[in-house]
From TrEMBL:
It holds the Pfam family BPD_transp_1. The keyword Lipid metabolism does not apply. The keyword Isomerase does not apply. Residues 178-392 form the ABC transmembrane type-1 domain. PROSITE patterns: ABC_TM1. Belongs to the binding-protein-dependent transport system permease family. Its main location: membrane. This is Multiple sugar transport system permease protein.
Length: 404
């Protein structure tokens, strides 16, 4: 094989750059998030901090309200000693605000500044507590909380190492999501393989209107997944859905209204919708493999007196093995990462019965804005997908790169 030189590498460089930007960078970024307690709903964890930082904007807001409320409440103070303490605290807070003037966002602070801020916070809290004990003021409920925010402006490091993965190992909800994902993936892919192979063999037959059959069979796959899920939600509707009433008539469910409200019914419904949606895609991949099988092989089998079943298991299946691998690999990975179908159809309910890893990861990241733990879920899903791909290629034994 000819070695790749500089000229050949330059032709590959754009593809490598695009793969790095759109594939490798997001994976590396997600992997980095797993080592931090990164939560946007918490000011102290709204970034990736390996060392202690200081939130200058939070301190500026805190000192503004603190001085304003203290100036307002001290009008009721008659004790000259307490008045002096209040004025001293106000002066120190204002001096510190002047020292921090021009600084924005979250930045590093020195140990001396940290020590001074903690001392100022404690002194402020003592004065506020003494004020609340001696006088009934308008801001006695808010001042203690604001005084604590001086110390809360110091942001500790939120690097947690492997604690996120340790938490995931003991997360019962994650385990349930993994079980739901596995059930959905292997049941739906198994049905899609059987039905897709049958559909592919029908489309491979020489018959009148073959082109029309191939075109119409691809319509479910051509429909956007979100649209298909919304369509199936109407069909499953307990009050007016045709499919729901049909299931009740044949005895699959006791009440059509409970189809999407029971754990088993919801899982079966999502699997049925997915099988209807993606069986044509499986059939299309297998049809390409069937068309590569020479007709001479079947003619030789006919001469030897082989039956249709014998030809199917001794010719079709062995020669279709690479195509089956590709179809299974693509569909399994796609089904394991399923999101839009279940999100639109059930939202992961009822009670988490159809919540998959992708749904759980989405809820952790965007509903709870917990990007650290959400990234842990994503990385676990990434590992599962890699393991599935390895198993398919290793144990099915089809060498896709073999030119012979």
């Amino acid at each position: 094989m000819k070695k790749i030189g500089l000229r050949e590498f330059l032709f590959l460089a754009p593809v490598i750059v695009l793969i790095s930007i759109f594939s490798l960078v997001p994976v590396i970024q997600s992997f980095t998030y797993t080592f931090f307690d990164y939560r946007l709903n918490d000011q102290q964890n709204a970034g990736l901090y390996l060392n202690e930082r200081f939130n200058y904007e939070l301190f500026d807001e805190t000192q503004l309200y603190l001085t304003m409320f203290l100036e307002e409440d001290k009008q009721q103070v008659t004790d000259p000693v307490l008045l002096g303490k209040i004025d001293t605290v106000i002066a120190k807070v204002e001096d510190k605000a002047k020292a921090f003037a021009g600084k924005e966002g979250v930045q590093k602070i020195t140990k001396e500044e940290k020590t001074e801020l903690i001392a100022l916070s404690k002194e402020t809290q003592e004065v506020v507590q003494q004020l609340a004990e001696q006088y009934d003021t308008a801001n006695e409920e808010n001042l203690p909380l604001i005084a604590k925010d001086i110390e809360n402006s110091i942001i500790p490091a939120n690097f947690i190492g492997l604690k996120g993965y340790k938490q995931a190992l003991g997360d019962a909800r994650l385990g349930a999501a993994l079980v739901n994902t596995t059930i959905f993936t292997f049941v739906s892919v198994a049905f899609e393989l059987v039905l897709g192979l049958a559909l592919a063999m029908i489309m491979n037959k020489a018959m009148r209107g073959k082109g029309l059959i191939r075109t119409t069979s691809l319509i479910p796959w051509a429909i956007p997944t979100a649209v298909a899920a919304l369509m199936w939600s109407y069909l499953y509707d307990g009050s007016s859905g045709i499919v729901a009433h049909l299931f009740q008539m044949v005895g699959l469910v006791d009440n059509s209204r409970e189809l999407l409200l029971s754990a088993g019914g919801a899982m079966v419904s999502t699997i049925l919708a997915d099988v209807w949606k993606t069986t044509p895609y499986m059939a299309l991949l297998l049809l390409a493999g069937l068309q590569n099988i020479s007709k001479d092989t079947y003619e030789a089998a006919d001469i030897d007196g082989a039956s249709s079943i014998q030809k199917f298991f001794t010719i079709t299946i062995p020669l279709l093995k690479p195509s089956i691998l590709v179809a299974l690999l693509f569909r399994t990975l796609d089904a394991f990462r399923v999101f839009d179908l279940i999100y639109v159809l059930t939202g992961g309910g009822p009670g988490g019965a159809t919540e998959t890893l992708s749904i759980y990861g989405y809820k952790a990241m965007f509903a709870q804005t917990n990007f650290g733990y959400g990234s842990v879920i994503v990385m676990i899903m990434f590992v599962c997908v890699a393991v599935i791909a390895t198993i398919y290629v290793k144990f099915l034994g089809a060498n896709l790169m073999d030119k012979n």
